[in-house]
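Annotated sample (chain length 371).
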Amino acid sequence: MEDGTAFEGQAISSDGESAGEVVFNTAMTGYQEILTDPSYAGQIVVMTYPLIGNYGVNDEDAESGHIYVKGFVVKEFCRHHSNYRATRSLIDYLQENKILAIEGVDTRALTRHLRVRGAMKAVISTKDFDPQSLERKLRALPSMEGSDWVKEVTVKKKYVWNASGDGGQGTGVRKEQATKYKVAAIDCGIKRNILRILESLGCEVHVFPAGAGVQDINAIHPDGLFISNGPGDPAAVTSVIETVRQCVGKLPIFGICLGHQILGLALGGKTYKLKFGHHGANHPVKDLLGNRIGITSQNHGFCVDMGSLSAADVEMVDMNLNDKTLEGMRHKKFPVLSFQHHPEAAPGPRDAQYLFRYFIEMMEHAKQKKS
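Output written by the structure step:
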């Protein structure tokens, strides 16, 4: 690690070397969704739960078409998985995708170190054991702050989502109504379960690359704009911030995770880096509008500074109960709403999935005003 701390383990997949920002995730299950979440691009993930891989993997639970983590660190990998849906073991899955993974690490000590010192750069190596050499490699690695990782994960060209043609089965998401709304989604690293849920609520989702401009979005005459989750520093994704800024007040807008942060920046606010971020499936969040508490799935290292936003224009609607950080906000004048946590889960609890209906209501209201 960049502070000179070293942990030893045994490689169970590919040999080689990989570097990135190391973070810990407190989820007990959902490792396949975590591995395939584009929001983890550029990061080495440490699982705090001691035994990982007991239910194997399958082709239906991936949240994207790739594994995006730079490395995977666990206490122990399960060698004998058991699940009727599994098609192969987690170890085989990591080997197929050439992901450097290690076990036998004291993940409790590593997690404690990250909580005390904060997230930092690290390198996993099976060939270089010289501390000075590894330190030089880490110095050359760009920091997560200021890095635009969205350009590494965004789709290359626009497409229309179709779950039936993309293996979206077995997720518990069923079609609730006929297609009624056309949604333009800016892909900053979008998860498939977001697309499945929007489709189930009657949305035809047109997924745009992060570089899409206002003219591209307006060309499909959307009923609403969605800004997705994604990796890296939101302040570095300047093109998306500008596009969203131009859409405020003209379209209903809904953002999740990085999309929430980008909205905060587009509304004139600021973001800052959290000490070790929120990564897991057990984070309590209070809905200030409904006066209820939900357990949420989270994956972010940056946060919107509520104090940097105009109180006359923006209000907090969700609050993290662990550290009181901003988890949700809405505009007081325009149909603009966003959340830092993941209401689509995958992995994690579905306590907050109702939040998608707010977006539907905003679009419905806008359609009625037009008519």
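Annotation: The first helix runs from residue 31 to 35.
Annotation: The radius of gyration is 20 Å.
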